[in-house]
Design a protein that fits this description.
With about 575 residues, this protein is mainly β. It contains 2 helices and 51 strands. The protein folds into 2 domains: about 260 residues; about 200 residues, Neuraminidase (6 Propeller). Strands 1, 3, 4, 7, 8, 11, 12, 15, 18, 21, 22, 25, 26 and 27 form a 14-stranded parallel β-sheet that branches. The longest helix has 4 residues. It starts with a strand and ends in a 7-residue tail after the last strand.
């Protein structure tokens, strides 16, 4: 069931709970709910002064002055399990505001991600606690709190429980990292109880130090990166952050949660539920997600800040400049790198979850990659004049591979980051490369769009999962190929945009049915990407006449953003053919 756009149930007031209000003395259970795009003063999505239990649900894209996603009043209690709180915003507690001094907020097997607490639009009190603002006792077990923003402080958690509450907060097997603020990036607290085996990006804090009780704690000078995949559909009813290979969270949790020796009810699964065991290796993982090599890691395209959302971004050929608007905090990034004749080749070459500024130089066949980690660069030769750069992750190791399509010989050359070079003949004269992961195995497939096929425009795909070839007719010679995962099933959908009328046509990978809709005008440049971080590609265009971006976001509504100047090339259009 989905509640959205301020539609409420039960005892709704003007100030409490944009979608749901739970009054004092009431017990409510929410299971497999989506609460989105609601707003109020207290609890944009939900406000509770009663006893609320949430399981297997998503609270997203809500706004409020206190508790963008959820507000817990003085006498209220909240117990959340196997759920995701994401992309909510407000002043205090972008995700959750626990205002009940003596009532425990219990969160287990949950993800709290990409929420924000800032002064913008909420000017009457200091903003903090991007993920959680907390007065009462807080109990966290196997929770992932990442990508949240608190301005001026406490991007992850603002914890006042030891001052105002019945007792200090307690945290076990929990990731609190990759959050941002002016100061105290991940957590502000006067003191808490670590029950052990937590991963804190920036510390130490009162109650949690590196190497004590299994805690892994970075510093403010060198924050610890937990190596999280962007928020994605990794199975189960809610989105999660998968752990990337090499994450220090893997197998570093306390298995007592699985064995039931430290919890009244053992955790037999991770956040995703049945079919996703809580313990796979020698111990459990820290956070809401249990690592499994069978999970396909997904990369959000054109995500320069690693928050799981595509960023409006441009390449300015006249100056060799790159400009991107960070969706995580609204700040602008810029760098000079390249010359006017270079080809945009941006992708995540280093596997850190962030798109790297990169270009391919046609005159020399050289690749230049500016690492997102430290803005150092590396360069190497691969390809020849006349080739078309087609970078993607062809070997499934989480890193983009340099690759080119040679139109003269209809040959693909792929320099795999895992080692070795693949040379594959595939295509016909006049074909355009449209490489993407069409079969959902985590590896890009070699594919071409044939504008002038025997029966109209044709698509030919060589599946990496079994080397079989799939072909279908879809489109006309003048259409622009814009393949991507528009339905969120982990497989790229065949898709095109018609310049003459601005219509998008999507062929669903699930059943090969199609849908169409208008978005854009004839002079626009298509620039699809996941601009709201829900693992579904959004139709989007860049309008050169006024340097404005328009994105039809699948969960967050229409985005209109002026960004760029005359002559700029929208980076998300780099692989539109």
């Amino acid at each position: 069931m989905t509640l959205e756009n301020g539609g409420g149930i039960s005892f709704l007031t003007d100030l409490d709970g944009g979608c749901i209000y739970v009054p004092l003395g009431t017990v409510m259970h929410l299971d497999q709910m989506v609460v989105q795009q609601c707003s109020s003063d207290f609890g944009g999505g939900i406000s509770t002064r009663g006893n609320l239990y949430i399981n297997r649900s998503t609270i997203r894209n809500n706004t409020a002055r206190l508790g963008g996603g959820i507000f817990v009043g003085e006498e209220g209690t909240l117990t959340i399990s196997n759920s995701t709180i994401n992309n909510n915003g407000g002043n205090q507690g972008g995700g959750i505001n626990n205002n009940g001094d003596y009532m425990t907020l219990t969160i287990t097997n949950c993800t709290i991600s990409n929420n924000f607490a800032t002064l913008d639009g909420f000017p009457d009190s200091p903003a903090h606690g991007g993920g959680i603002f907390n007065y009462g006792p807080l109990v966290l077990t196997n929770v992932t709190i990442a990508g949240n923003i608190g301005i001026p402080y406490a991007g992850g958690i603002a914890d006042w429980a030891s001052i105002y509450g019945l007792g200090p907060s307690q945290i076990r097997n929990t990731i609190i990292a990759n959050n941002s603020s002016d100061t105290l990036f991940d957590i502000f607290t006067y003191g808490l109880i670590s029950n052990g085996n937590n991963l804190l990006g920036a510390g130490p804090i009162n109650g949690m130090e590196d190497g004590i009780d299994g805690d892994i704690v970075g510093t403010y000078e060198l924050p610890l990166n937990p190596l999280l995949d962007p928020l994605s559909n990794n199975g189960g009813p809610t989105a999660t952050h998968a752990l990337l290979a090499g994450s220090r969270a893997i197998n570093k949790g306390n298995k007592c949660v699985f064995e039931g020796t430290c919890l009244s009810t053992p955790l037999l699964t991770d956040q995703r539920g049945v079919g996703f065991a809580r313990r796979i290796g020698i111990s459990v993982d820290i956070g809401a997600f249990e690592s499994d090599s069978s999970v396909t890691m997904r990369r959000t395209p054109f995500d320069f800040d690693g928050d799981g959302k595509s960023d409006p971004s441009v390449y300015r050929p006249s100056a060799g400049e790159w400009w991107w608007l960070k969706s995580s905090n609204g700040n602008t990034g810029a760098v000079q790198f390249g010359i006017s004749t270079d080809n945009v080749a941006s992708a995540d070459y280093t596997g850190d979850g962030k798109t790297d500024v990169a270009f391919w130089r046609p005159s020399t066949g050289q690749w230049f990659v500016l690492r997102s980690e430290d803005f150092s660069f590396f360069a190497f030769p691969f390809g020849a004049t006349g080739d078309v750069p087609v970078p993607a992750d062809y070997d499934g190791d989480g890193k983009a591979d340099a690759a080119v399509f040679r139109e003269s010989s209809l040959t693909w050359f792929i320099s795999k980051s895992s080692g070795g070079t693949d040379i594959v003949g595939f295509g016909a004269a006049g074909d355009k490369p449209v490489n993407a992961d069409y079969d959902g195995d985590g590896k890009a497939d070699i594919a071409v769009f044939r504008p002038n096929g025997a029966n109209g425009a044709e698509w030919w795909i060589r599946r990496s999962s079994n080397a079989s070839v799939f072909a279908t007719q879809f489109g006309s010679p003048t259409d622009k190929a814009v393949p991507a995962d528009y339905t969120g099933d982990g497989k790229a959908d065949i898709a095109f945009w018609t310049p003459s009328n601005g219509n998008w046509f999507i062929l669903r990978s699930e059943d090969l049915s199609y849908f169409a809709f208008p978005f854009g005008s004839s002079t626009d440049i298509p620039a699809p990407g996941d601009y709201d971080g829900d693992s579904k590609t959004d139709a989007a265009v860049f309008r050169p006449s006024n340097s404005t971006w328009y994105a039809n976001r699948s969960t967050a509504g229409l985005l209109m953003q002026q960004f760029g100047s005359t002559g700029d090339v929208p980076i998300p259009s780099a692989y539109v053919r």
